[in-house]
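input
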Amino acid sequence: MNSRLKTWLPLLGFVGAAFLAGAIGSWATFENVRTWYPALNKPSWNPPNWIFGPVWITLCVFMGVAIWRVWRGGGPAATSLVRGYFVQLFFNALWSVLFFGLKQPAGALADIVVLWLLLVWLLQGLWRVDRIAGALWLPYVLWVSFATALNTTIVRLN
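output
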């Protein structure tokens, strides 16, 4: 395998894994997003549905590039950060399954708290290893922070 392919194929793998986690969550929950979710009581600051696609596309690319930068640099922290990346993808996909698929906002809230803790841990590690990777990860942490507040409010309102 030539060196260019060895460099860029892992990047596609990391970004692709993020999109796969999102696709799993979306595929498992699509019908309830259209039927059950609109019937829930939501706060006035609930974003419009059209915003979720562009936000998640951006976040998947950013998080894939962030972890790729750390992986590419190697070093002792890279292995644990890459493992953490895949663990957080699991909790990310699980949130959609819990919230939309199983219609369990309270269970999804427990999941998103674990996800948020993982994301903050990853942010700290990424920032120490590669500031650009940390900066790319920050929007994901902020979005999940917002989603946690939204999830909490939906639990309270319903």
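quick obs: The first helix runs from residue 3 to 35.
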